[in-house]
Amino acid sequence: MTRGLRSVVVMGVVNVTPDSFSDGGRWADTDAAVAHGRRLLADGADILDVGGESTRPGATRPLVSEELDRVVPVIEALAADGARVSVDTMRAEVAAAALAAGASIVNDVSGGLADPAMLGVVAGSGATYVAMHWRAHSDRMNDLATYDTPGGRDDVVHAVCRELAERVAAARAAGIADDKVVLDPGLGFAKRGEHNWQLLEGLDRVAALGFPLLVGASRKSFLGALLAAPDGAPRPVSEREVAGHALTLVLAQRGVWGVRVHDVRGTRDVLRVWERTSRR
Ligand code: PMM
Questions:
Q1: Is the pLDDT of residue 2 over 60?
Q2: Fewest CB within a 10 Å sphere: which of 36, 110, 169, 255?
Q3: Which pLDDT band, with edges at 50, 70 and 90, does 148 fall under?
Q4: Dihedral pair phi/psi, residue 38, rounded to 5°
Q5: Whose CA is nearest to atom 9 of ligand 1?
Q6: Which CATH number is 9-277 given?
Q7: Of ligand 1's atoms, which has the minimum distance to the CA of residue 188?
Q8: Residues with CB under 6 A from ligand 1
Q9: What is the pTM of this model?
């Protein structure tokens, strides 16, 4: 990855869910979610990522109708404000409704694996497609957090690259243009703590697939574990922000395309310092 002068896209999270691990319930109704999205825009978000399904470990899936009711009115309102909106969904039906409501990006944490109709919907729309590394829904993902290769090495970077390349091939076969694809290593999804750090270390190998990278580390458990108290208690979700910002700086230096974050204002501050000190 090149250390560029180009900045990093800031994707602000708008979870319209009662149960997301990081901010569950806080923006669960339409008005609160729209107000939150507007605040993130004022704070400097480039993209608002609106989601109606929690993907925290063990979460149960909402009905399609519930997911639609959560995200569509929020997307309509924020897109009408002129915001660039992405929809965080694994469902083709929700993606189609979100695109009709004004979203221009589909952020599919399953990379097309959860719904066989997803890639076709995205291809037909011309939307940007974020394909994340994923192995199974939240109730099963921790069982699949093993990355032994035939040689016996636990090489999560190798496996994530291989599996993302398969998703790229499927996206191409469905008719999604390469310049519409963004890849995401999927921190915390079927990954144990150490896997996330190995992926961050090996991010150049993921970038070598040739696509822009989006990384979502904000408030995740591996940061809570890194910052654990002497008795082993993980740092609470609400106190992981500084570590997330440090990671944003590292990711900017590594040349990622974008970061998916909850605290847009703090992320912008970090990037302003980085941009100001990276000028030549
Ligand atoms: N993480 C979550 C949800 N959606 N989308 C992408 N592309 N990458 C991620 O890492 C990601 C995601 C889970 O985090 P949240 O519950 O804080 O939204």
A1: no
A2: 169
A3: confident
A4: -65, -40
A5: 216
A6: 3.20.20.20
A7: 10
A8: 13, 15, 20-22, 55-56, 88, 107, 109, 130, 132, 184, 186-187, 214, 216, 219, 260
A9: 0.94
